[in-house]
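Q: What changes when N-(5'-phosphopyridoxyl)-D-alanine is included in the input?
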Amino acid sequence: QTVYLNGEFLPLHQAQVSVLDRGFIFGDGAYEIIPVYSRHAFRLQQHLQRFAASLTALRLSNPYSNAQWAALVQTLIARQDEADQSIYLHVTRGVAPRDHAFPAGVSPTVFMMSNPLITPSAAQISQGVSCISASDIRWDRCDIKAIALLANVLLRQQAVDAGAVETILFRDDILTEGAASNIFAVRNGVILAPPKDQHMLPGITYDLVLELAAQHSVPVEIGYFASSVIRSADELWITSSTKEVLAIVTLDGQPIANGQPGPLFKRMLGWYQDYKQ
Ligand code: PDD
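A: The predicted holo structure follows.
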């Protein structure tokens, strides 16, 4: 497997980073995940823009222009066997003696890898998936795609332990997002979505779902929704670059509406699949 590290493409086993890297010591860096279908990086410009915004928020200078990133991503894609991939971009503040304050004169560590793209199974798409809920214990800058993911890791594991696919997060009883995904609800034919504020990651799939809704004249209400609204919704959806769009049919063991993927989900899934072609 070929990866990219600090200016070189090399085999994974030769890619090595110092234990003093601030990514390792402090989780001091940002990342991005880009799905690749048939060697085409999906919504690449949007992902690169969000990556640039994450780096700016961390006061890290972007090592490359979007055009340079795009060329590197294309090279990495071309060097893999699989045509469908998940590209991981990662920049940390670099290697320096341990000190919370930013080091002077240190160059960032730049890493990229490709993994096989694992998309939902046919059963998950047709039957929907189960989720649990938890209170959102993360910090106040969830809009940054930071590599420090301890809360997300713990929250996702709670879902796995419960035999569910994701943990839906509520901050003071208001829906934010999933541990590694965005969440939508449907009520009376209207798509309900949380706003892109500092309590959720602005999902690239989230934006696409809202674009597709607008194209097909489906009404959308952006707002703050209490857990009672979410639990009594007609439909619940989960979105991410790797989950695409899935229907959530149970939450904490209770069915959402009749416990089956809803009609608007089926339409949205069709629009999403057409868009991907
Ligand atoms: N996660 N919210 C969080 C906290 C996420 O980690 C993700 C993505 C999303 C969805 O964003 P997008 O539609 O751009 O993938 C929302 C990726 C897939 C991950 O960390 O593996």
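Observations recorded in class: The chain has a mean pLDDT of 98.
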